[in-house]
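Recall from the previous lesson that a structure prediction takes nothing but the amino acid sequence as input. Here we apply that procedure to YqxA family protein from Neobacillus sedimentimangrovi. The sequence below is the only information supplied.
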Amino acid sequence: MKMFMLKSFIITALMFIAVFTGMELANNGIHKMKGYDDPNFQNAVSINERDATILGNKISSHDLEAKKKKLEEISAYNFFSNMGKKLSDSLTNASEKLIKKIAD
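The prediction returns the following tokens.
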């Protein structure tokens, strides 16, 4: 099941990247076909130091920080995050005990 989910995630990520790459190549092809720059055409993906533009929608780090603060205010409970933290803590403790036993 884990391998299936991993493969599905990788394929989905590759398809997502391929779509944006195809859109960018199509945009470049339109510019080459016209022979001049038209200011109405925009790039599919544009990344600056702090801002990113995807399909004309601006995304900035300030937006992400505001969303993070909003989520912290809501203090939403995430079952999987909580279980992951517990699993991580238990594995850390178990490995520390094992290393101490081996060292003694």
